[in-house]
Amino acid sequence: xxxxxxxxxxxxxxxxxxxxxxxxxxxxxxxxxxxxxxxxxxxxxxxxxxxxxxxxxxxxxxxxxxxxxxxxxxxxxxxxxxxx
Length: 84
Prior knowledge:
With 84 residues, the protein is mainly alpha-helical. It has two helices and two strands, in the order βαβα. Strand 1, helix 1 (23-26) and strand 2 (30-31) form a beta-alpha-beta unit.
C-alpha cells in the first residue's frame, strides 16, 4: 500500500482484510478485522464485527475474482480502438 502511493480522502472509509494491518497508522478511517491469538481469543462482539466487515467486502472480492478469472486486467487489448 505504501509503495503504490494511493491516497484516500480522510472521509473515505476503507474496508480491508488482515493483510493490511499497518493501514490504520496511515489512514484513520480504515476498518480491519480483529485477529485472535492464543492468549487473547475473540469475543462475541469481535466475531460479529468481523462478520459484518466480511459481508460488506464480499461483493468487491467477488468482482475482483471475476476480473481475474476472465483475465480482463492482465491481458492486452490487441484490436483496433474503434472496437474497444
